[in-house]
Amino acid sequence: MATANQKIMEKLLKLNGAVAINKRNVHADVLETHSPALNFIFGNGWGLPKGFTLLAYGPPRGGKSMLLRSMIGRMHQNDPTAVAVVFDTEHRWEAQLNDAATQIAPYGIDIDRLIVYATNHPSEIFDRIEKELSAAKDAGLNIQLVGIDSVTEIISVRGTSQETIMTQQRGDHASTVQNGMKQILNTIRRHKMGLVLTTQIRDEQDPAEIMKRKTKRPAAAWALKHFCEYWLLMEPIDSQAGRKDMLGNELVDTSMTAFKKDGEQSGHKVRARITSSSMGPKNRVAEFTIDYKRGFINQHEEVFELGVGSGAIEKPTAMSYAVGDRKWTGKPNFLEALKTEPDLAQSVLTEVKRRDLAGTFKTFSELEADDDEVEESPD
Q1: Share of residues in the chain with pLDDT > 90 (%)
Q2: Is the Cβ–Cβ distance between 86 and 147 less than 8 Å?
Q3: Residue 298 DSSP SS3
Q4: pLDDT at residue number 376
Q5: What is the pLDDT of residue 374?
Q6: The pTM is what?
Q7: Going by C-beta distance under 8 Å and a sequence separation of 6 or more, which residues neighbour residue 217?
């Protein structure tokens, strides 16, 4: 027979908002990218848990919009009913996704399950999420991902009605975004829709930090930063190494030699860091390669680094590699095997993830220190 206190507890747990703590693993249902290293740095479920928020920030060419498209494509590939909704405040997606063969197919995006709104008006973003998207989800539309690319371009509430640009009010944009996020929080959580926000970076004003040349901050108010469970800094690797693959081959389109003697640069490497997280490890680093026409490429290199760093790939000698009973001599031969044998690469990733969740290793990104890498100090 239930005690009086148990009955009271049961009654309270039936009230709206009550959470069954430890009854659901939110990290078991995540939004992934096409990059194994990017997925890894989230920790736990190796992706963005649905119902929570990622803030991706960085300079131009850092791959922020490509990250969002990759998450949409992977979601479409993983779930044949999943729908994504993107608020394109920069009015670029129509131009960036106008070719099915070169701009849509590489990401795996099903254009019939993608809704894009070109608007930067706050009511057409936040009200629409809270009302229309919530109603659509209740009606059975499987919306799993919402993106705002970018929050920087959302016009402030007062900006929507001012008659001249000369009318300015300090803090109005920050207040608009803050109130908008409060408005949609319950919708995102209740419907388990992952929210991906992009923003630029802000110039540092503190002379001491400028001298350090290490801190890069999101162009966002503190309220928005507190709202987001994950901060992801993405930067192009602006060096010779950032324009080559692991074996030293240049990332160039050799078909363009008629216009440029050595060919045209076709891609570059990006370094990404989880600078803050309230739901996973912090300061994990990923390096991946983006191709301007094919999206994310050379994932076998990411598998190699994750596998070697974790011990999932053994090294019997300095120039040999082993996975289970199979062995390879020389890095080029082993990289080729990872590239051409999907089952091999997947078996390595499965073991890397097992070791990561068991807490039995530190990867190359956690062991290596790079003076050129930037570091965020969120608090």
Answers
A1: 60
A2: yes
A3: coil
A4: 45
A5: 40
A6: 0.86
A7: 201, 202, 204, 376
